[in-house]
Amino acid sequence: MLEGIVFYVLLSLSVSLTLWILLGRWGYGAPLYGIGIFCLLSLAALLLFRGWKITLVDTARALDRWIPELEESSHLLLRPENDLGALEKLQAARIEGRLDKAQLPHPFRIRLIISIGLVVVAAAPWAIKSISPPDTHTASGLEKATPKKSLLPAIQTVRIRVTPPAYTGRPVRSQQDLNIQAEEGALINWEIQTNTAVDTLQIILSDSAQIQLQPAGPERTLWRWSTVAAHSGFYQLRLSKEFSDLYKMEVIRDEAPRIVIRTPKPYTIVDIGESRRVPLAAKVQDDYGVQDATVIATIATGSGEAVKFKEQVLPFRTVFTGNVPAYDLQQTLDLDALGVHPGDELYFYCKARDNHGAESRSDMYIISLPDTAKLMSLEGLTMGMNIKPELFRSQRQIIIETEQLLHGKDSISVQAFNDKSNDLGVDQKLLRLRYGKFLGEEAEEGGSEESFKKAGDSPADFGNAGKVLDAFTDKHDNAEDATYFEPAIKQQLKATLTEMWNAELRLRTFKPREALPYEYKALRLLKDLQQKSRAYVAKTGVKLTPLDPAKRLKGSLDGIGQPVIQSTRTQEPSPEDKLRMALSVLDRQDAFTSPAYGILQEAARQLGRQAADHPGEYLAGFQALKRILAGTKAPSDAHLAQQALRKLVPLPEANPSAPNAPPDTGLSQLYFNKVNKR
Prior knowledge:
This protein is of the alpha+beta class. It is built from 19 helices and 20 strands. It is extended and about 140 Å long.
């Protein structure tokens, strides 16, 4: 029974150790958590698994199972002798003698060994971590090897209270660590308790400003000082003539809201037939909370000097509380409700404000609504065109006839409607092929009878794929090299042909209403191409200084002096060179000379300025360099100082150099030998 209890307790202990070590990685490694887990698991094991509660009947059954010599009669020894018969008494006497000589097994001992092994395995990581020395070869080991910052002997305790501003929504916190990390605008209070009464106590900020602390009572043992966190830097305590270590004071700046507009695109064109309700999806994020967000929309109407602007503020339908750091905003820009007419443009951007008052805005987005009346006009064309040319239908004429077909749909039969739509599709195809020739495209009718005869005029050429391709293809043609157009012009011309393809597809399938947006888009692209083909060069005149005939051909050099260029060169090294020299000085392990000491002092001044702006990155190296200059350096101080100085040294610029020429493989000598043979 005792072995059973010990087994389940040890098993619970091994599981508790494993869970406690895992919880320690998430910050719950206090011993109280481990004790609580062990008590709960032990109680559950003893209540659920009653292996420790063994009766005499259970023992007799186990002996019958483990010792065959008992002949499953050990239960007779548990019954009173008066209740046994003659044969039962004889059998009980036989097994009693055998039981005294039998070697009893100990099944729980094996379980105890297993449970003890599990406890050792579970406790091994914690024991290794506790007794292992710090690694002084890694970066973390260097930090651990750095001398621990201690208070001045006369200072007993230091308590720092940080009160974050209201816009952060964070609670007040207290700490005893002198390294401070506070939000911008937070109130920081120092409360310093000394062992004895002191005369003066100062706080030196970033090696520049000295703050005289005032005592809180006549005992002069309690000193207080408070300030508002505005700039990052470092500070140290000064008690009479003693100075403490340097401590960092990092200020977390309040960032402006970040706005990301997902839809629409930066430049959107709403063609005819498309919906004039443009969805707007944006995401606004802030480090503490978003107070408000709006859409500023400006409508531009007219052109040239008659352009007019109208600005509107469109709020989002989301309710802003000021405590939520991120919002997914949705809005619909109804162009008709905003008063955007064909030919107008809508400029809009999103503006957001956080709960601290910082504002930010997104980039400007443009939504254009083309004017179909201008697209249909002939203004700006270099050559006049007939409204209905005999050979080709222009894109403008195809649009006119498509709208006429839709307008008279109810007055004609279905067959006539389909025939007219198909005819317009044929006209669209002819126009597409006409413009496709500018890109080197070929006709779609295939080869003629002469091509078939040319491909198979000889029985020997049967199955010759090369000759068949020569008969039906034009090898001189390449769509990319057929013209001298610029790549942008080619790209827009290809887009125009694509829109014509889409319009032709709808017209051939008797859907002229769906083809109308593609026709308008193709016309707009063609108009843009016509405008891009124009160039304007301003005429400029040349005005020369008139010559004086009285001074010509005299050869007089009076008044003309010899040019003298004076240049002074300074031998003073640059700040970057001084940092490199400081790195080389720190590599030496011997005592510093006077020039080397001056170089390290200059490096310490540069490093101190950086530590005042970025204490979390440079303060450790700056303090290590100060200990080196003071002669109280630790083994790792030189490495810490070099790490900080290397961050300040810029990378050298790459100098131009000749490319590596491939080695001569003897080709020139072979060419020389061939020439000599001739």
